[in-house]
TrEMBL record:
Lineage summary: Eukaryota, Fungi, Dikarya, Ascomycota, Pezizomycotina
Organism domain of life: Eukaryota
Protein name per the record: 25S rRNA adenine-N(1) methyltransferase
Compartment list: Nucleus, Nucleolus
UniProt source species: Hirsutella minnesotensis 3608
PANTHER family in alphabetical order: 25S RRNA (ADENINE(2142)-N(1))-METHYLTRANSFERASE, S-ADENOSYLMETHIONINE SENSOR UPSTREAM OF MTORC1-RELATED
Length: 296
């Protein structure tokens, strides 16, 4: 660890206010840890799907040896500052436009799924009534909760004007679960934006902010930007903004359909053949066939 500690100062100086990792690791170490965690989680889910309890136990032990989700989150925080151009919510705030936000009389309610910090740009802006959740909370202001287990809202008071899924979909280790996560956003967004003229008309929502590593769309055998758009449009979203950085793809979607689709069949199919490509994919089988098992 001695050699790694030498990099501590430079890492800290490059870190945005959201990133408060207590111990730094090198850029290479954080990238390796993130990749290993994703691979092991994927294998663990496969073991669960196949009912292989021994394999699941040994993969869980390997994940624990790596430091588990807590260590992964620490690496992700460093990733924000080192490689990804900082806090992704800065892009969302730019798109929403400070002037517009100041004109909105109601305070838009925002759900940040996969929250590592309560001090990102959106949280500090004061424009939002924020709810932060994560599988593993690292701060008192972040509820420890699985979005997939969050009770479905009973009224608009429990719903949101904006949901953020920044680098969360790619964290989910299973293609079918990713589809379910996107589908689930529909239940958590407010569709009724109030009477025109009451100040709420300026809010452009209901909105979904999505960030993915570019490789998920640019270099996957089973996913591409057009295929992803096809799925989001099937769910009732329309793209409002999108941009790419060197490593990430940012997008902002507006929910434009009044009702969720009654059926969706979005299957895994090869769209970009090639040996060097990755296997990122999203599938959705809604409503699920009774015998269908979640599988990549
Ligand atoms: C790579 S980190 C991204 C964090 C941050 N949003 C960002 O943009 O850097 C992914 C986070 O999503 C969280 N996460 C994944 N699935 C989740 C779920 N179903 N519910 C809540 N949080 C989830 C993980 O615990 C992890 O902290």
């Amino acid at each position: 660890m001695g050699a790694k500690k030498k990099t501590l100062k430079s890492l800290r100086s490059g870190r945005p206010p959201t990133a408060t990792a207590s111990r730094s690791m090198s850029r290479k170490a954080s990238r390796t840890l993130i990749n290993s965690h994703h691979q092991l989680e994927k294998k663990r889910r496969q073991a669960i799907a196949e009912g292989d309890a021994d394999a699941e136990k040994s993969l869980s032990a390997e994940i624990a040896t790596l430091g588990g989700l807590k260590h992964y989150q620490r690496a992700s925080l460093q990733g924000q500052s080192l490689e990804r151009g900082g806090d992704t919510s800065k892009v969302l705030l730019e798109w929403l436009n400070v002037r517009t936000m100041k004109d909105i009389k109601h305070c838009p309610r925002m759900l940040e799924v996969g929250s590592l910090s309560t001090r990102n740009a959106c949280s500090l802006s004061g424009f939002f009534d924020m709810v932060h959740i994560d599988l593993n909370s690292q701060e008192p202001g972040i509820q420890q909760q699985d979005f997939m287990e969050r009770p479905l809202p009973e009224s608009d008071a429990d719903r949101f004007d904006l949901i953020s899924l920044s680098l969360v979909l790619n964290f989910v280790p299973d293609a079918a679960l990713r589809g379910q996560m996107l589908l689930r956003t529909l239940s958590f967004l407010r569709r009724n934006l109030g009477e025109p003229g009451d100040g709420q008309a300026a809010w452009p929502g209901p909105l979904l902010f999505l960030v993915l590593p570019r490789s998920c769309l640019d270099n996957s055998r089973y996913m591409s930007a057009s295929r992803f758009t096809e799925l989001l449009e099937t769910l009732g979203y329309k793209v409002m903004q999108e941009k790419s950085s060197q490593k990430l793809w940012y997008s902002l979607w507006k929910l434009v359909q009044a009702q969720p689709p009654s059926t969706v069949k979005f299957t895994k199919r090869e769209v970009n053949p090639g040996r060097s490509r990755n296997n990122f994919s999203i599938t959705l089988d809604h409503p699920p066939e009774p015998t269908t098992k979640a599988r990549r």
